[in-house]
Design brief:
Layout lengths: L1 H4 L3 E5 L15 E4 L5 E5 L2 E2 L3 E2 L9 H11 L10 H8 L2 E2 L17 E8 L6 H16 L5 E4 L7 E6 L15 E5 L10 E4 L4 E2 L6 E2 H12 L26 E5 L18 E5 L2 E6 L2 E5 L7 E4 H4 L9 E5 L4 E6 L2 E6 L6 E2 L5 E2 L14 E5 L4 E6 L2 E6 L4 E6 L8
Parallel strand pairs: 6-10, 7-8, 7-9, 9-11, 12-13
Antiparallel strand pairs: 1-14, 2-3, 4-5, 10-11, 15-16, 16-17, 17-18, 19-20, 20-21, 21-22, 21-23, 24-25, 25-26, 26-27
Helix pairs in contact: 4-5
């Protein structure tokens, strides 16, 4: 069923869309160990006996690095530049970026059983079981399968929390880095899912590794899905614990593949525009254009290459130059990110609800936002109205759209 039923499915959120494209690229993967040194290039994981790794040859290093950069939507320079290092440092799945498997991986039965053989040390048994039950429920909405937990040892899928070397050929690396890995469908270890017990697991939006988000991704591998190169996808190799609430994920059908926006398209529009230090940043789908006064060329790159926690299709953004941060809005949620040399850092306590600005419950999203440094006023545009927020007095006023804003 993987080829016929899942090829066009995607994961979406009630707050924003998250695409999951099932595409197979026969390239390898380059990973970074915790000392931030590239140490392996691998391109194969056999589902029954574990992974077989092969060492990277010096002559192919740059070629493999370019393949990795292509997969992550980075400039294919073949050099270990800051953006490449930032992509490598993200918490990720232990499976290769793309698996060149030889045959179709799928289950033959329509009801799959799973067993939790070893609970972790960070969460209670009830929290773990609830997260896994929710993850399987999401997949049950998308695929013609049923999932049932059992206690017997002959379950199709065995789930466990493990430390370091756990005798499957793929040892964990401690906190950070690789959070989990899974095996494609098959007998024996096939379909099994392993989580690193040393991670800071959580079942909320608090700082840490959200177990539900990781479980949905790894269970996709247990069903036979490879990684996706779409950074907004649930099957993207680097996990996204950002603006969206994973508890609200649902499966829906989406047949349109992601496309790079054409800057020459006369119908091109942008999701949001904001200043960022000396640059002007245009957001469109999962991409950004960066315009700098000192450079003639306008660069386009993936949002996640600069801000790993930001989703695609945002509603609005503005830079608070007084705090050197950027606020990003999507639906009823917003986050604040502190500027960093290469990556934005999400501030503690986010995401938050836009009701904190004083909006009534009828306002579910905003269209645009402007921040004025001198007066610390924030203008929010919603439909044909402009709502002005006085930051110092924390007052929100409804303002009739002034003529100066008619061009918007």
């Amino acid at each position: 069923f993987i080829e016929t039923d899942l090829a066009n499915f995607s994961i979406t959120s009630l707050t924003h869309a998250v695409r999951m494209r099932v595409r197979i690229f026969l390239i390898g993967s380059i990973r970074l160990i915790r000392t931030n040194r590239i140490f392996s290039t691998h391109s194969r994981w056999e589902p029954v006996t574990g992974r077989r790794k092969r060492a990277a040859e010096p002559d192919s290093f740059k070629a493999k690095l370019r393949e990795m950069q292509h997969f992550f939507g980075l400039e294919e320079s073949g050099d270990v530049d800051p953006q490449t290092v930032a992509a490598m440092r993200r918490a990720r799945c232990g499976l290769s970026d793309v698996e060149p498997f030889r045959r179709t991986m799928r289950w033959t039965n329509r009801t799959l059983t799973y067993r939790i053989s070893r609970l972790g040390s960070k969460l209670t048994a009830a929290q773990v079981r609830t997260a896994f039950r929710q993850a399987w429920k999401l997949w049950a909405q998308a695929v013609p399968l049923k999932f049932r937990r059992q206690r017997r040892s002959d379950a199709d899928i065995v789930i466990s929390f493990n430390n370091k070397d756990h005798e499957d050929g793929s040892p964990f690396d401690g906190e950070g880095g690789i959070l989990a890995h899974a095996f494609f469908p098959g007998p024996g270890i096939g379909g099994d899912v392993h989580f690193d017990d040393e991670e800071a697991w959580t079942t909320t939006n608090a700082k840490g590794c959200n177990l539900l988000a990781v479980a949905v991704h790894e269970f996709g591998h247990a069903l036979g899905l490879p990684h996706s190169s779409d950074p907004g996808a649930i099957m993207f190799p680097a996990y996204n614990f950002g603006l969206h609430n994973v508890l609200q994920l649902k499966i829906s059908l989406d047949r349109l593949p992601p496309k790079t926006p054409d800057k020459c398209d006369p119908m091109l529009s942008f999701d949001a525009v904001t200043g960022m230090q000396q640059e002007l940043v245009f957001f469109k789908d999962r991409f950004i254009w960066r315009v700098h006064p000192s450079f003639e060329q306008i660069g386009i790159t993936l949002i996640t290459s600069l801000w790993p926690d930001l989703p695609a299709h945002i509603d609005a953004a503005y830079e608070n130059t007084n705090t050197n941060s950027m606020l990003v809005f999507k639906g009823e949620a917003f986050i604040a990110q502190r500027h960093h040399k290469y990556n934005g850092i999400v501030l503690h306590g986010y995401p938050r609800n836009i009701s904190e600005f004083g909006f009534p419950s009828t306002v579910k999203s905003i269209d645009a936002a402007l921040y004025f440094r001198e007066t610390r006023l924030i203008d929010f545009f919603i439909g044909g109205e402009c709502w002005r927020h006085e930051k110092l007095n924390k007052i929100l006023l409804t303002v009739i759209l002034p003529s100066v804003y008619i061009f918007l």
